[in-house]
Design brief:
With 428 residues, the chain is α/β, with parallel strands linked by helices. It contains 16 helices and ten strands. Helix 4 packs parallel to helix 5.
């Protein structure tokens, strides 16, 4: 059974600048905005976001699929144009446990993803586990064997589903940390060609030892480090010059590259990534950052228009939630109390995204939206707080409503990716 991802690879091998955006988010406003497009939509969830124990979203893979399909139905988006992917599927969540238990839980997670209907599987066994030797780097061959075990679980699960189940795989050992860097980085080392060659050789061998020759034919992409990254207070821009050898190497393979952490890259950088065969561009925090930015601007407008007792106090409610449950940001933000307070609100890492689903935060958001009702926002305040949208509203291209403005704020980011990733022929 053919997949739009197969055609993406074929188009790249024909020399076409084709790509696809991978939406790595569970946020309903982000997903609904992405569903406004008319092409193939790739949505991915990570191992710590969605797993058999619920992850930080509280959703199992099956529940996440039901959730996304429900949003698709609400927004008249055809599910046949939807691809669901599992990102960083491996022992990352359980990396502090001994290898036996961490890998068992990883296999159970992969099984749950495949059973739920995910068809793009990124296996990631690149991290050391609790009883690995802490004094040295993880052996590439050991990482490859663990990845092959995960693929074997995926393939056996797929076989139980039936012949129509055909998975596509993404592999690689130089995998950026999920969610962006945890500390400030002035430079990011680009993956060396010789390291990719070694990874491919040992991973292919591990696949074949496990009898996974057919699965190897469905490996479509490699995760490497193209020198792009973001964190709390920095963005590493894509530099094509330092990636020249990397880009040329993949041209003689049957694969493309998958680029993680492309959030906040410029439109030119995204186009250059596609040109250099980073055909799958993953984005998540930049989208929820845009949503947060718009919500905060609305809260500022609310302060001008609504009596104090009736306001949502959303910004305060969010910060209270983050301080009450600091687990999602405490290892990412550093410095004085003032600096960390600023990061909780405005960090590029956007750890705020972990808190939108909390009941008290949701209640505040609902009050904020309700406070504006159906009246258009005053144009002077739109100009003050949404200057990017002011002209579109004045010219009638964008509705002057809270929901339209929130959606458009996300779409501004997405359009950079859509314009960089030309449509895949036959699948739009």
């Amino acid at each position: 059974m053919s997949s739009p991802l197969d055609e993406l690879v074929r188009a790249q091998k024909r020399g076409e600048r084709r790509g696809i955006t991978s939406i790595c988010s569970a946020h309903p406003w982000v997903l609904k905005a992405a569903m406004r497009g008319d092409g193939t939509l790739l949505i991915e969830s990570t191992c710590n976001q969605v797993n058999q124990f619920g992850g930080y979203t509280g959703m199992t893979p099956d529940a996440f699929v039901t959730y996304v399909h429900g949003l698709a139905a609400e927004n008249s988006f055809p599910v046949e144009r939807l691809i669901l992917g599992g990102d960083h599927l491996g022992p990352y969540v359980w990396k502090n446990e001994p290898a036996v238990s961490a890998m068992q839980k990883s296999e159970d997670m992969v099984r749950a993803y495949v059973q739920a209907g995910y068809t793009k599987i990124h296996v990631d066994a690149s991290m050391k586990l609790g009883d690995d030797d802490p004094s040295c780097l993880l052996d590439v061959e050991l990482a490859a064997r663990r990845a092959a075990c995960l693929v074997k679980t995926a393939e056996s699960t797929c076989a139980d589903i039936g012949p129509e189940c055909k998975l596509r795989y993404v592999i690689g050992t130089e995998v950026p940390t999920p969610g962006g860097a945890t500390v400030h980085e002035d430079a990011v080392s680009v993956t060396k060609v010789e390291d990719i060659q070694q990874m491919l050789e040992v991973t292919r061998t591990s696949f074949f030892i496990e009898g996974l020759e057919a699965a190897w034919e469905r490996v479509i992409a490699l995760v490497v480090q193209p020198g792009v990254e973001f964190g709390d207070d920095f963005i590493q821009n894509y530099n094509p010059e330092v990636v020249y050898d990397l880009a040329r190497f993949v041209e003689i393979t049957p694969f493309v590259y998958e680029a993680h952490s492309t959030d906040y890259q410029t439109s030119d950088n995204l186009r250059n990534l596609i040109r250099d065969h980073f055909a799958i561009l993953k984005v998540g925090p930049a989208l929820t950052f845009a949503f947060r930015e718009a919500v905060f601007a609305l809260a500022m407008i609310e302060n001008e228009l609504v009596p104090l007792a009736q306001r949502s106090h959303l910004i305060e409610r969010l910060d209270e939630a983050m301080q009450r449950k600091p687990v999602y940001w405490m290892n990412r933000y550093h410095g004085t109390e003032r600096e960390m307070a600023l990061a909780r609100k405005y960090s590029l890492s956007d750890r705020v995204r972990y808190y939108w689903a909390l009941p008290d935060v949701q209640a505040a958001l609902n009050i904020l939206i309700k406070n504006f009702g159906k009246k258009p926002l005053p144009l002077s305040l739109v100009s003050q707080y949404f200057p990017r949208h002011y002209t579109s509203i004045r010219e009638g291209r964008l509705g002057n409503s809270v929901k339209a403005i929130l959606t458009e704020s996300i779409l501004v980011v997405l359009r950079g990716y859509i314009q960089a990733c030309e449509p895949i022929p036959g699948f739009d």
